[in-house]
Amino acid sequence: MLMGYGWLSDFPTLEQTPPIIIRQSLEEFLKEHNISQIRAWDNSISIVQQQASWVLSKEDRAQHFAVVMEYELPREGGRRPDVLVLENSVVTVIEFKNKDSLFISDIDQVAAYARDLKHYHSQSHNLLVVPILVLTQSNIERQKINGVTVLSPHQLGKELVALCRLNSGSQINAEEWVKGEYAPLPGLVQAARLLFHRQPLPRIRRSESAKIPETLGFISQIAHHASQTKTRHLVLLTGVPGAGKTLIGLQFVHTPALDDLRVDVPGRRVGAPAVFLSGNGPLVDVLQDALSSTAFVQGMKKFIEYYAFKRPDTIPLEHIFVFDEAQRAWDANIVEEKHRVRASEPELLISIAERIPEWCLVLGLVGEGQEIHRGEEAGIAQWAHAVKNATQDKWIVHCPDHLGKFFKNLNVQYEIEPLLNLTTSLRSHLAGDVHKWVEGLLNQPTMILPELRALAEKIINAGYQLYVTTDLNVAKNYVRERYLGAVDKRFGLLASRYANNLASLGIDNKYHFERATRLKVSCWFNADSRDPDSCCSLSRPATEFECQGLELDFPILIWGDDFIFDERRWCSKMSSRSKVTDPHKIRTNAYRVLMTRGRDGLCVYLPIELSRNLRATASLLRSAGMKDLQS
To answer: Can you state the angle between helices 212-229 and 245-253, rounded to 10 degrees?
Structure first.
């Protein structure tokens, strides 16, 4: 597939072309430009031509160097590195900033460009990709910060020559390079759109190494086996935050591989073989809004209400149910409170599945340690009891090893499958250990501080930033600068529902339907970044209830007084009206959710000017490896 760019040439052609011709090419490519953009182009074109001329005078191999300007990263909504120079086995990613001082957001922006080109561009996997930041109004001495080389304009040519002489590889073929496939890691909403329109998801090396295709294939095999043998199966898929559980469920439900399982029932229309259900209301709203469809994802509560209470004799059209966030299924107490029927949601779903003639499969997607609400604390044990008490047929359970105990204790037939436990986070790009760092931090951090610092350093070096600040404006300015012009990027505020110290900051962290003006969750995640209801307005936070199962490119977590470190251990508090069995576990789970929503990084803001008891928490986060975000 041909990539989009504003200019491509070798160095001799670049040197000899009048600047106005180059700029006109850029204007034609990027039609929505303004006077400030034109000035920036004129400035960068002048610098690149001068430095290319100097390089040509110093290095014979530079005759074959190529330059690409305004290279557009496909599917990335406005992300365009200013200049790429293709040398002998080296891709230099150059970002120009018309500034005289250094901003960390600029460092992180060019570092992310280099990271993504290295790992998502097919022609760059085996090349050295070097990020360079040029401050056009500065005489700064060459320095390296977080893997990014920072230069003044007159040093650029010298840097390009040095890179050429340090590497002995062959010259990159520019025409072939720009034709390379760019397959970025899609966000959940982006992936849902592709699946909805029956378009293939990009082949991501990390998802393949995490055995996502094998897991999908295994679950599909179970479905076909169930159809052939007329049996009933419960499959439980577990995984760390961001491992792709929801994405696997969506892919499974909408894969053409299940088309042969459509069943023609006399007197009824032919139904789709599978349905994706979620008890996560905000996720359902966000995906239904993004797709303008209520069929692709359906709410578990409405599904159960219809089939268990309103139409208890109706047989569903589908033979396969996928239950996202299965660990959050309501227990019998909550169901009885809501519907006056003594049964858990797993029991109701199993009983509905048993009405389906001949065979069925229930796939539960389990996010462990993410029970955050009253009625969700019973966990996997509910599913074991539901299968044990099934009335019509003997069920076969498939689960990872660590869940086997729940079924063994009840003498339920089960089969262990390692593929059903996803241990690698895909959400955080290359930093697959974010969940491990968060887990260690939220348990007994003082016992493992050296390990946490080492893990944080590994995560940051992989391109996932971990920042802490005591100034909310600094955090807001950082994300706005970093994603300037990247219209598809999403950043926003997060906060715990039970934090009581945020009202004085003007932070409304009530659950969306409790607020004076409701939080429009679908708009918060999906609306244009310039919309006042968008998360990018940085005006209203989403709580753990609204962001669970969803993601942002860069969240700013406003730390509350409901989960505070007292220099020895974590202390939690929760409204007495919540009626949960273990409030501390629920608050720990809530902060686990809040800290694992980011794709590019996380910034924690601690309002210590209002809550001095947060000082020890701030100190712990720094000791565990988070970096201070400077203005």
So the answer is: 40
